[in-house]
TrEMBL record:
Database matches in PANTHER family: FERRIC ENTEROBACTIN TRANSPORT SYSTEM PERMEASE PROTEIN, FERRIC ENTEROBACTIN TRANSPORT SYSTEM PERMEASE PROTEIN FEPG
Protein name in the entry: Iron-enterobactin ABC transporter permease
Membrane-spanning residues: 73-91, 103-123, 129-149, 156-178, 184-201, 208-225, 245-274, 281-300, 306-335
Keyword Transmembrane helix: yes
CDD domains: TM_ABC_iron-siderophores_like (cd06550)
Naturally occurring in which organism (per UniProt): Nocardioides dubius
Gene encoding the protein: fepG_2
Membrane topology: Multi-pass membrane protein
């Protein structure tokens, strides 16, 4: 496969596959087009020229575009990228296309943390909810690792145990909702569907910043992650400290998932589908991070646009659309694996 040498420092060059650059460029263009289309959609479709003017400080719909729609669109792009990278992390660690946070129960764990924060502790602030989601996700990950890690790492064992833990946590979540006060239960049930509606700049500034920092952090350890994906023996022979790298990657993946869950609720199947779609587009042996991030951003932004427009003026939670799309993808993936 042809590669290009990109200068990154004096005397140092980075070898990048040409197909990866082309696919990344195309996905970036599609993400930008999808985001701009989402900015054009409010109560109806606004003319692209008016939206373009609003972006640069003029026009009659400036407030609608910059204060109401832009936070939602930015959240869709950044949250989708975060979920795509979280899925890529766990699929590389488990070496299995079914290894994603929503399949192995981390979404359910983060949701449990939020419900405990809302219904048991009674805290409703943004910081408390985010802390609850992070605590729940990390606790679920720790439990799954404790049950799955034996003398050697097995991705399949982790997935099976994660599915079981997720099922138990789903039952706990249902119990927490049933025992909550009516208004809290209604809000929690709607929030569980996964929605980007009503987000403003105050809601997303901290989560977006945290996700960007986490994406930068995982980019720094991308190389040992890909070495782990090709087997324990290869990782050891190249000097990778397996257990510390695995723990750091799991922590980053959980924090990415929990941050999105704390703000928008559990948005399923983006983390499952985006890494594999990105991998197939670039023809990579492992699961590369950049295509996973861009594909996740495109899937979530496009799904949110569909959720707003398919039954307009009634808007669906974006999680309904991602569940439908992800279900079809999962059926295709299972059929392909069976064959």
């Amino acid at each position: 496969m042809r590669t290009l040498a990109l200068p990154v420092a004096p005397g140092r060059r980075l070898l990048v596959e040409r197909r990866l650059l082309v696919v990344a460029a195309l996905l970036t263009v599609l993400v930008l087009c999808s985001a701009f289309a989402a900015l054009c959609f409010g109560n109806g479709w606004d003319h692209p020229a008016d939206v373009w003017s609003a972006l640069f400080g003029g026009g009659p719909i400036q407030i609608s575009v910059t204060q109401w729609r832009m936070p939602r669109v930015l959240a869709a792009v950044v949250f989708g990228a975060g979920l795509g990278v979280a899925g890529a992390i766990f699929q590389n660690l488990t070496r299995n296309p079914l290894g994603s946070p929503d399949v192995i129960g981390l979404d359910a764990g983060a949701y449990t943390g939020v419900l405990v924060t809302l219904t048991v502790i009674g805290a409703t602030g943004e910081g408390a909810v985010m802390a609850g989601a992070l605590a729940g996700g990390l606790a679920a990950a720790a439990l799954i690792q404790l049950l799955a890690w034996g003398r050697s790492f097995s991705g399949l064992r982790l997935i099976v145990i994660g599915i079981a833990v997720g099922a138990v946590l789903a039952a706990v979540n249902s119990w927490l909702v049933l025992r909550a006060e009516l208004d809290v239960a209604i809000a929690a049930t709607f929030w569980n569907a996964g929605s980007l509606a009503g987000l403003d700049w105050v809601d997303i500034d901290t989560p977006v910043t945290l996700i960007v920092v986490l994406l930068a952090a995982v980019a720094l350890i991308a190389r040992p992650m890909h070495q782990l994906a090709f087997g324990d023996d290869l990782a050891r022979s190249t000097g990778v400290a397996m257990r510390p790298v695995q723990l750091v990657l799991v922590a980053i993946g959980v924090m990415l998932t929990a941050t999105v869950t704390a703000v928008a609720g559990p948005i399923v199947f983006i983390a499952l589908a985006a890494p594999q779609i990105g991998r197939r587009l670039v023809g990579a042996a492992g699961v590369p991070l950049l295509p996973a991030a861009l594909t996740g951003a495109l899937l979530l932004c496009g799904s949110d646009l569909v959720a707003q427009g398919i039954f307009a003026p009634v808007a669906l939670p974006v999680g309904v659309v991602t569940t439908a799309v992800g279900g079809l993808y999962l059926l295709w993936l299972l059929f392909k694996e069976v064959r």
